[in-house]
Design brief:
The protein has 173 residues and is an alpha+beta fold. The protein is 26% helix and 34% strand. It contains four helices and eight strands; from the N terminus they run αββααβββαβββ. A six-stranded mixed beta sheet has the order 3-4-2-1-6-7. A two-stranded antiparallel ribbon has the order 5-8. A hairpin with a 2-residue loop joins strand 1 and strand 2. The longest helix is centred in the first third of the chain and has 22 residues. The radius of gyration is 20 Å and the shape is globular. The protein starts with a helix and ends with a strand. About 13% of the residues have low confidence.
Amino acid sequence: MSKIPTRVAACALFTAAACFSPLALAHGNHTHGHGNVQVSVEGAALTVRLDVPLEAYLGYDYPPRNEKQQQVWQAFVERVADPLRFVEPPAEAQCKLSGSRTEPALGEVDPKVDIANLVHEIRFECAQPEALKSLSFSAFRDHPGLKQLRVRLERAGAKKTQTIRPRFPALVF
């Protein structure tokens, strides 16, 4: 056997990878239905940063293409305005919302642009931070495409990682 077929196969494989890799990267590095969350507690401040593929929230990860998808998008934008639809601290911690933002900012998104992941940062100030013993992820209720969240908790110098799923949607500190 000659080495030419092996070289041809290697060239074909390299060419195929070069042609398809931009398509694979078009939606960024993510797995549909799976998100990452960073939770930090510093004194009375609770910060939750969700980094989730838009597909997990909407059922699609491209600009709305029809009236039904446009309605889904509008309902989602309205939900984002209420951060408690995504995460809920325990009532006994007496946490008040101190701020919320998304990347990209949903009000400034060009409807023709693909959004791979949505980063939603939610900040609370808690009157009773010692009562922060858990955190519920209410996002699972409105978004059936959200299958799991990989959560990293940082609190008082300690770190913990836990996978949260719809069946038990709470992080226990």
